Amino acid sequence: MDTIASLFSFITTPVSWVIVQFHKVYGSIFGPDTGWAWGLSIVSLVILIRICLIPLFVKQIKSTRAMQTLQPEMKKIQERYKNDKQRQSEEMMKLYKETGTNPLSSCLPILAQSPFFFALYHVLNGIATGDKIGVINEQLLESARKAHIFGAPLAAKFTDGSAKVEALGASLTDVRVVTAIMIVLMSASQFFTQRQLMTKNVDTSVKTPFMQQQKMLMYVFPVMFAVFGINFPVGVLVYWLTTNVWTMGQQMYVIRNNPTPGSKAQAAYLERLHKHVTHHGKTRRRSEKAIVKAIVAKGRDRNEAERKFINALTKSGFVAQADGAVVKGDAQAVAQAEDGTATSAAAAKRQQPKRQSKSQRQSATPKAAGEPTSLVKSEEPADDKPAKTADGRTQSAAKPGSAGRSKAQSGQRKGGPQRPKSPSKK
């Protein structure tokens, strides 16, 4: 670890300068030699670094969403070229290039934070060994060596012997207890952060190997933190625990307000948004309008949670517009909301066919030559008595299938209802 930390020695001077500036502020409040002054200086350093990394965090979220969207296409490529790894890699790179996705973007915050982590380790290790690092002079070095957090010196480690711990003015039991508690908290926060990502903010409709890898990392990372944590000084444990807590809170905020489509977090968010819209009668924030606009634009491609949200809006008397606004609408807009085509309440009403009058139905022309001339009764009553033919036999009622033949034989005129002709007399 010392060798790795020395590789980032170029950044130790800026990191030590920032710590010293925060120490001046907190030292004037809690005392320059207290653990609160030095501990809060490290916490403030973490917060400052994470604020600077927010743009990279936003890029990480977008990259992760893009990777989740591409999972079905990636799975198809893997199945299609499962026997040709080179072609599979070429198609993957082509897919990344076409969609503008970079798989390494999800690692940017960790990679950008690593130099600061190793620089802080280098500074605290110098405090433990009594070496001046960066802008930390002899006076500050002596003050930092006296600082204790719950009885454990900033430069002490879990693996240190009793002689080294006593030289720092502490007991081995205090150091072991404090470092063990901080390692457990650090691993637990890392596990909870990864778990809430997997259980709440993952599209459950897509099952891919990427999800299995993330699930495996949920258990691997906490173990790695526990193994490496016993070699970290107390000051580094404070730094890393603060980083994990910040990441956990930041991720909780993102999951609550900008969840992944198709996830459980999105269903919970849309349920809250429905209550908010029905209470206020409109979408008030720009982020809410952006989400409603995206849902309306999907049309029939909406997932189950989005369809429930649109249907719940229309049943409550609201209609989602194409620009993300929500206005008062008609309850009949349920069908329109599912289609995702119309945007106004008037357009949601179905057009009913006009009812034809009796005379219009009687004058309707047949669609085909083989169909009956009219399917309605004549206005004048037909003769109830059966007609007689020329040889004196009774003529039975015409069958539906013989309408065309009877029409041609009788020479009746086209169109309209026809009366049966009276039989001719000899």
Shape: elongated
Strand content is: under 5%
Write out the strand line-up for the largest beta sheet, numbering strands in chain order: 1-2
Give me the strand/helix succession: HHHHHHHEEHHHHHHHEEHHHH
Low-confidence stretches: 331-335, 340-350, 366-390, 394-411
Figure out the total of helices.
18
Percent of residues in helical segments? 55-70%
- Sheet bearing the most strands, described? 2 strands, antiparallel
Number of strands: 4
Mean pLDDT: 75
Rg (CA only): 40 Å
Q: What can you see in these coordinates?
A:
The chain is an all-alpha fold and 426 residues long. It is built from 18 helices and four strands. The protein has a two-stranded antiparallel ribbon. The protein has a two-stranded antiparallel ribbon with strand order 3-4. A hairpin with a 5-residue loop joins strand 3 and strand 4 (326-328). Helix 3 packs across helix 11 (234-257) and helix 12 (264-280) packs parallel to helix 14 (304-315). The radius of gyration is 40 Å and the shape is elongated. It starts with a helix and ends in a 16-residue tail after the last helix.
Features:
two-stranded antiparallel ribbon, elongated, 18 helices
Summary?
The protein has 426 residues and is mainly α. The chain is built from 18 helices and 4 strands. Helix 12 packs parallel to helix 14.
